[in-house]
Amino acid sequence: QLQLVESGGGLVQPGGSLRLSCAASGFSLDFYAIAWFRQAPGKEREGLSCISSRDDGSTHYADSVKGRFTISRDHAKNTVYLQMNTLEPEDTAVYYCAADLPHTYCPAYVAGYAMAYWGKGTLVTVSS
Model confidence over 22-45: pLDDT tens digits? Predict the structure, then answer.
């Protein structure tokens, strides 16, 4: 069974950093586009970033996180990371990773194109 598990969330002060992990079991992430999303209380889910399959490797970021967040892969660990810097209270949300065999390009996934597999999320709270 294909599973994605997010980890690395927690409480961080404004201006701080966190690194989220998206680990896979049952399949190799190398063949999949992986995207990160978040959903804050009372708000719609927001696409943040995407990294395409290993053959391509291109990345895409939403304007809201460009320059602050970085997506990357560790092929040996079958894990995708989201490095989040200069966190703000507005970044407080449940963060999800999702995977899809590439049917489109990363900008479309960040914009909301359906993805096949989802993790259960990890909570990030930015507060002093």
Answer: 999 888 999 999 999 999 999 999
Contact 113, 35 (CB under 8 A): no
CA distances from residue 29 to 2, 4, 8, 90, 110 in whole angstroms, order as listed: 10, 10, 19, 30, 18
Where do we find the tokens 């049952």? 26
Q: Is residue 90 packed enough to be buried (19+ CB in 10 Å), middle (13-18) or exposed (0-12)? A: exposed
Q: How far is CA 112 from CA 36, 44, 92, 121, 127, in A?
A: 11, 11, 20, 17, 28
**H-helix or E-strand spanning residue 61:** strand 59-61
Query: How far out from the chain centre does Cα 29 lie?
Result: 13
